[in-house]
Amino acid sequence: MAISHVYGLLGYPLGHSFSKKYFTEKFETWGLSETHRYEQFEIPQIHDFLTLKLEHRTLLKGLNVTIPYKQQIMPLLDEIDPAAAKIGAVNTIKIYPDGKTKGFNTDYWGFRQTVESWDAFPLFKSKKAVVLGQGGAAKAIIAALEDLGMDVWKVSRTPAEGQISYEGLAAAMDEVGLIVNATPLGMYPKIDSFPPIDYSLLNKQHYLYDIVYNPLRTAFLEKGIAQGVGGVYEGLDMLHGQADKAWEIWNA
To answer: pTM of the entire structure?
Structure first.
């Protein structure tokens, strides 16, 4: 049999990616490995996507999108799912038989299902949630938390309107329950990096969620554990959740 379905990951760089291994193993498990293939498409600029789409126009069925293109990709797509448009970021692209493209956001679903099913959720739901970073993944996480009825503080090194600084966060930590690291800080190979919050203010009322999955136990989580936080959640389940949702979209 010949390859008839190609999927892939769009981003730059892609050394940290898990997607190729994840989907390749899925194809083998499902008996699809002779016809389905997952590739890494490392493109140095976003407009290379158009060339890529042309080169693979008969085989390419769907793409995942990662750093730094979750927002940059949007103007190049034919259609955006309303939920992704509201979030302002796309991490999954469906490519139809006629070549038309539609963008979706599955980070939202991956994060929402994991945080909602966390047994600590009832303990921090009524307190403030803090999202560190303001990239594409952060936008999806903020939308999910707000849809779950939580009051969200958006924290950035260079805060814009409606955001607060890391220094400003320190003055109000007693109101906070959940802190989500939605930055790449701590990701391999820079595993010693971490968001610049005041870790000495953390205690058992605080719960830390890190979307970084390599390593699973990041410096951010380790520093929280050392301060006696109420609990921590690693990023792998969110990653699996968003990948499975992408597969569902590609095959709908």
So the answer is: 0.88
